[in-house]
Every structure is written in structure tokens, then in C-alpha cells.
Amino acid sequence: QVQLVESGGGLVQAGGSLRLSCAASDRTFSKYAMGWFRQAPGKEREFVAAIRWSGGSRNLADSVKGRFTISRDNAKNTGYLQMNSLKPEDTAVYYCAADASYDRIVLAGVSDNWGRGTQVTVSS
């Protein structure tokens, strides 16, 4: 098990940018795939992005391609989600996830480890 803490959320105008961070509790994070999910009020949680432990493979949801970038710094036990050109429909609580299986995150949307989330609100 690894503990995850998200930060960097906030209120931003449409067209603006935010960078979310996901800080892991220990170095085992470097062996896990990492993902970002989001959940808007009244909607189901949805996949946003994922990255393999090595950073060598990444996957983004169609709705954020070209606007969001996922990255990680294993030396810092931290992952990131750079969000540009934000839209009101990006408003949600964003959750970080870490799992031994990249495919579980990308294909099944499940993970053994979750953060508590950070709120992102995009005003029009």
C-alpha cells in the first residue's frame, strides 16, 4: 500500500491552467503505474490519464488529449497532471491512483491505492 496526497486544485477561469501534484508516501511509488481520474457532481468517476512506472507509456482520455499532460518524477515520489486550456466541463474532483498494473488503471479504471482528491473548478 502507498498513501497518495493530491494538491494543486483550485478555481480558474476557462482557458487557464493548473498543475496537479500527487505525492506518494514512499519509494514504492516508483514501481507503480499512476493514473488520474475525476468525478463531477452527479456523474460517475472517469479516467483522465495514466503513465507507466517508467514513464515510457502514457494514455489520455479523448476529452483531454492535446490539453492535459501526465508526468512523474520517481526521485521525488511525485506525479503530475498539467492541465491547459481548461473548460467548465473539466470541473470535478480529481483523484490520483497508483497500482502495480497499468492495464488495471487504463482498461478497468481500478486501483489498489487512491488519494482523497482535489477540487478543480473552471468558471466560464
Q: What spatial form do the alpha-carbon principal axes imply?
A: globular
Unreliable residue runs: none
End-to-end Cα distance, whole Å, is 39 Å
- Mean pLDDT, all residues: 96
Q: How much strand? A: over 45%
Q: Number of helix segments? A: 1
Q: Could you describe the 3D structure shown?
A:
The chain is mainly β and 124 residues long. It has one helix at 102-108; strands at 4-7, 10-13, 18-24, 33-39, 46-51, 58-60, 68-73, 78-83, 92-99, 113-114, 118-123. Strands 2, 4, 5, 6, 9, 10 and 11 form a seven-stranded mixed beta sheet that branches. The termini are far apart.
Question: Quick summary of this structure?
Answer:
This protein is mainly beta. The chain is 6% helix and 48% strand.
Provide the fold topology.
Elements: E1 4-7, E2 10-13, E3 18-24, E4 33-39, E5 46-51, E6 58-60, E7 68-73, E8 78-83, E9 92-99, H1 102-108, E10 113-114, E11 118-123
Parallel strand pairs: 2-11
Antiparallel strand pairs: 1-3, 3-8, 4-5, 4-9, 5-6, 7-8, 9-10, 9-11
Highlighted features:
48% strand; 1 helix; 124 residues; 6% helix; mainly beta; seven-stranded mixed sheet
